[in-house]
Amino acid sequence: MDLKTVDAGLLQSRYRLTKQRAAVLRALGDGGHLSAETILEKVRAELPTVSLGTIYRTLDILRAIGLVQVFSFGGSAARYEASLDKHHHLLCSTCRALENVQADGVGEIAAQIAAAKGFSDIDYGLTIVGRCESCGRKPGKNGAS
Ligand SMILES: [Zn+2]
Ligand SMILES: [Zn+2]
Which ligand is nearest to the CA of 92? Predict the structure, then answer.
């Protein structure tokens, strides 16, 4: 993620870019989908005294600003990413790899279904579960791991 965009986003929302927030955004900077524990490990390399509670609070603030999105599927631990755009996911059932994908038309379908039931302020996300290319090539595995 472009740090200039991040700074602009934080200025717009009048939130200060605190050390913790900057460190969390840097941890997420390579575009991965990380658990709070993994983010904690990375942030501790910069700020050794940071606690998991601080990481969760920081992630909540960054989500409220719209700089961080959370992904969770089927009761698995939440994974966070620094992404500003609406997107959907391909999830590998074997190695848990998570890939961002665009899915044109999903928003329209979601809006139609919601409107038919009188829902407003909707959110939606498409998750396609399967085996990724590299797991699919390995013989003798049926995706259960
Ligand atoms: Zn895989
Ligand atoms: Zn994602």
Answer: 1
Give the number of the ligand closest to the Cα of residue 72: 2
Q: How many domains, in total, are found in the chain?
A: 2
Question: Does residue 115 sit in the same domain as residue 125?
Answer: yes
**pLDDT at residue 17 in the model:** 60
Q: Flag whether pLDDT at 121 surpasses 80.
A: yes
Measured in angstroms, how far is the CA atom of residue 131 from the centroid of ligand 1?
5
Instruction: Please give the Cα distance from 63 to 57 (Å, whole number).
Output: 10
Assess whether 59 and 44 both reside in one domain.
yes
CA of 98 to the centre of ligand 1 (A): 9
CA 82 to ligand 2 centroid distance, Å: 8
Please indicate, yes or no, whether the overall pTM of this predicted structure exceeds 0.85: no
Measured in Å, residue 80 CA sits from the centre of ligand 1 at 19
Rounded to whole angstroms, the Cα distance separating 99 from 41 reads 22
Contact 46, 39 (CB under 8 A): no
25 in the same domain as 74: yes
Instruction: State the ligand closest to the CA atom of 143.
Output: 1
Are 90 and 130 contacting, i.e. CB atoms less than 8 angstroms apart? yes
**Tens digit of each residue's pLDDT (9 = 90 or more) over 34-80:** 999 999 999 999 999 999 999 999 999 999 989 999 999 888 889 99
